[in-house]
Amino acid sequence: MIDPRAIIESGVSLAPDVVIGPYAIVGPDVEIGAGTRIGPHTVIRGPTRIGCNNQIFQFSSLGDAPQDKKYNGEPTELVIGDGNTIREYCTINRGTVQGGGVTRIGNDNWIMAYVHIAHDCQVGDHSIFANAASLAGHVNVGDWAILGGFTLVHQFCTLGAHCFTAFGSVVGQDVPPYVLISGHMARPHGLNTEGLRRRGFSSETLRQLRQAYKVIYRSGFTLEQAIERLHEMTVECPEVGLLVDALSKSTRGIIR
Q1: What is the reported pLDDT for 18?
Q2: Which value, in Å, is the radius of gyration of the alpha carbons in the chain?
Q3: Can you tell me the distance from the alpha carbon of 147 to that of 130, in angstroms, rounded to the nearest whole number?
Q4: 220 and 105 assigned to the same domain
Q5: Has residue 183 been placed in a domain?
Q6: Which residues pair with residue 107 across a beta bridge?
Q7: Is 101 inside any structural domain?
């Protein structure tokens, strides 16, 4: 299952059925779980932990040193969960001590060609990154988020669960859950309604979330007033709680 032209250095832990293509390089302190397939010419540096049933396509670079001038060789790591697809030429770096030491990718994510995920980013589950979407350091991406092609995200931003960024979006502040954004600089353009329907959100829940969107963006409330009103709405619609949590924790401010 390992092509003889691949280079597997000492200190690598591979499940018995891992497939590694020709000219791939897997460095020390890398663990790869069952059912994962590594494409040709891929380079994986450690410490890196890759779970089960991932498919990593050719020419990707995973777990190399962070692009951070403060980095001084500390043993930080990259952790990738299960069931992810990582397409050609993706670059995902390890963390930094200052950022907690770990870059983390969850489960069942679809990461298309030329995507860059920088040091200390935390990506949840079921996200889609279209071609050439790029995260600067310390970015958090919630479950089910979709990033359009060539989306650029500033460091320390948070993209909430179920949000959607149109192609070419430039994101300089936090994106609340459920919200659709586009533009340079990105601005809100309603809810990611189609995505929410596909995930089984009921018509009544969508109605409540539309009201929550109006509270944030069309009521004239300050952010503090909007949070207070949204908190009241969680009694009838628990899904609004994601908005309350995101707005309460935002440190960069939200796209508004």
Answers
A1: 98
A2: 20
A3: 6
A4: no
A5: no
A6: none
A7: yes
Give φ, ψ of 17 to 5 degrees: -105, 15
Say if CB 49 and CB 70 are below 8 A apart: no
| Residue in 60, 62, 63, 51 with CA at minimum distance from that of residue 13 | 51
Total residues found in the chain within this entry:
256
Query: Which DSSP string corresponds to 203-241?
Result: HHHHHHHHHHHHHHHTS---HHHHHHHHHHHTTT-GGGH
Q: Order of strands across the sheet with 170-171?
A: 7-8, 25-26, 43-44, 61-64, 91-93, 116-117, 134-135, 152-153, 170-171
CATH number of the domain at 239, please. Answer: 1.20.1180.10
Residue where one domain finishes, among candidates 138, 164, 185: 138
Q: Which two tokens stand for residue 35?
A: 């059912």
Q: Which residues contact 121 (CB under 8 A, 6 or more apart)?
A: 103, 104, 135, 137, 138, 139, 140, 141
Do 22 and 111 lie in one domain? The reply is yes
Whether 70 contacts 53, CB under 8 Å? no
For residues 242 and 229, give the distance between their C-alpha atoms in angstroms, rounded to a whole number. Answer: 14
28-50, pLDDT tens digit by residue? 999 999 999 999 999 999 999 99
Residue at a domain's end among 113, 138, 163: 138
Q: What confidence tens digit (pLDDT) does each residue in 5-29 have?
A: 999 999 999 999 999 999 999 999 9
Task: Report if residue 14 sits inside a domain.
Answer: yes
Say what the pLDDT of residue 68 is: 96
**Cβ pair 37, 17 in contact under 8 A:** no
Regions of the chain where pLDDT drops below 50: none
Q: CATH number of the domain at 70, please.
A: 2.160.10.10
Active site residues: 119-120, 137
**Residue in the structure block whose two tokens are 């018509």:** 203
Quickly tell me which residue has 């690598």 as its tokens. 12
**Which structural domain, as residue segments, surrounds residue 225?**
196-249
